[in-house]
Amino acid sequence: MSIRCTTKARRGMVAFTVAAGLALGVVGCGGGGDDDKGPTATASASEGEGSAPSAQEGQADDPIAELRGSDGLILQVMSAERDAGGFVTVNATLKNDGAKSITVPAALSGNETEIVRNGRSLGGATLVDSKSKKRYYVLRDTEGRPLTTTGFSAIKAGENLSVFMQFPAPPAEASEVTFQLPTFASGTIQISG
């Protein structure tokens, strides 16, 4: 086997491992909560249209931040969780609050060539720790793909899209950071864990 084939096989295995870990994380985060409380207005928007609720809808009743973007887009940050591996995963819902279907702005992917060539994503998102004066960018895999939701281009009127972004974790004492996404207002979020 040539070095090139071995390298491709290793990259494929890393991508598979990351995908399997993310899938297990999504499965592990769903359900098991106190369902006696009725759904809130924010969590019931997608349920009213007959779609199945996502795993994120069971995580929290209210978003920890709500950021408004262009053309009626709203990003509701539902959680920002630090894990033992040194990462922070931000789970959110991207909503089209407008009256018509819109194309998601390409600016959300950021402007880095490596991320842009992998299609639409939320690769332009950053976390800013103002106390340490550091900015944290969305992580990438060995192929340069951002560790975030990808492959979306349009959102119909009233539709919700569950999204995630993974960042390197700021120091443990930095529990409050500013979340930024191109074309959206900035918002302060609390990191749990």
**Strand-pairing-aware structural class:** alpha+beta
Given the C-alpha coordinates, what overall shape results?
globular
* Head-to-tail CA distance between termini: 44 Å
Output the helix-strand order: HHEEEEHEEEEEE
CATH architecture of the domain at 61-190: Sandwich
The biggest sheet amounts to: 4 strands, antiparallel
Overall average residue pLDDT: 78
Tell me the Rg in angstroms. 17 Å
The main sheet orders its strands as 1-2-3-8
Total of helices: 3
Question: Helical content, roughly?
Answer: 10-25%
Q: Got a strand count?
A: 10
Biased composition (Low complexity): 43-58
Signal peptide: 1-20
Protein name: Secreted protein
Region (Disordered): 35-60
